[in-house]
Design brief:
Layout lengths: L17 H22 L6 H22 L3 H7 L3 H26 L3 H23 L5 H21 L4 H17 L6 H26 L9 H25 L4 H7 L2 H13 L6 H26 L1
Helix pairs in contact: 1-9, 1-11, 2-4, 2-8, 2-9, 4-7, 4-8, 5-6, 5-7, 5-11, 5-12, 6-12, 10-12
């Protein structure tokens, strides 16, 4: 998500918790409003924004680990080469995802960002079939075909592949896939990723400052405040969500994840005034139909 995440894999639950629902709903609403904040940073390069998202996420993540008594356990992870290697992979993928998302919002392509996050769950199903050998139900196959038709329609109508939407989908899909291989909790995983990214982030921010091209502490207090707050909007919803996901059924999380891209879609059209042509509307209609099928299969499977 964005900072917008796929459901974190947790043991199957038979019932939802109102506390977990509140956590998850809060996180998705925060992600849904995120484009409005990111639009304020449109004049700053995505790489500089990513650097400050990382820098100011670190103290928040450290504070959460300290308050929850998980800091000692995290220190032990730093001596495990396999964990560090997998953390480096997921850190690289989430950086790419952040960069595409920030650029999409700032350059007036928020509708493509919404499309990309709508496709996410369908791409995850496809990855499971291709990489893990998972069998697809017939309705899942139809859902994936509808999503492919939507991408094909946009490609034909515009004359170019919707790279931003696909970039968000692919980067997040593989991030979620490799995240499964990390044998650590959500809070530890996030802390590991931002810690791995911290050195290049600080290095880049310092280099920009020395070149006189940085926006942090460069005379515009508003930019400095926005860049510092970028850490808050990065770390807080993710950690709230991680705790809520443990208290919800997978089917509930699967339905809730549509809140954020729907809010992005509404914001792009009504707030940012991005044009929504007939081909785009049809493409979104195909995606929404695919997600109805996806949700039906998910709920039916959980009931069984």
């Amino acid at each position: 998500m964005a900072d917008l995440t796929q459901p974190i894999l947790t043991p199957s639950r038979q019932q939802d918790s109102w506390r977990g629902f509140g956590f998850a709903l809060t996180a998705y609403l925060m992600w849904g409003f995120l484009p409005i904040f990111m639009k304020q940073l449109a004049h700053i390069s995505p790489i500089e924004v990513i650097a400050h998202r990382v820098i100011w996420s670190v103290p928040i993540a450290l504070a959460v680990l300290a308050l929850t008594g998980q800091l000692k356990g995290f220190a032990a992870l730093l001596g495990q080469p396999r964990v560090l290697a997998m953390g480096a992979v997921t850190a690289a993928l989430i950086s790419v995802n952040w960069g595409i998302y920030i650029w999409a919002i700032g350059s007036g392509h928020a509708l493509q960002a919404a499309l990309g996050y709508y496709i996410n769950p369908l791409f995850s199903i496809l990855l499971g079939a291709v990489l893990l050998g998972e069998r697809l139900a017939r309705l899942q196959q139809v859902a994936i075909a509808l999503a492919a038709a939507a991408v094909g329609l946009l490609t034909w109508q515009t004359g170019e592949v919707p790279w931003l939407a696909l970039g968000l989908t692919v980067s997040w899909g593989f991030y979620a896939y490799f995240k499964r291989a990390l044998p650590i909790g959500a809070n530890h995983g996030f802390m590991l990723e931002v810690l791995i990214l911290l050195v290049p982030a600080v290095g880049y921010a310092v280099w920009l400052g020395l070149q006189g091209r940085g926006h942090f502490m460069a005379g515009v207090s508003r930019d400095t405040g926005l860049l510092m707050f970028a850490g808050v909007v990065t770390a807080v919803p993710l950690m709230i969500y991680a705790n809520g996901a443990k208290l919800l059924r997978l089917s509930t999380i699967g339905i809730l994840q549509y809140i954020a891209p729907t809010m992005i879609f509404v914001t792009a059209f009504f707030v940012f005034g991005e044009p929504l042509g007939l081909a785009q509307l049809v493409a979104f209609g195909l995606i929404w139909a695919a997600l109805v099928l996806y949700s039906w299969v998910l709920v039916r499977g959980m009931r069984a």
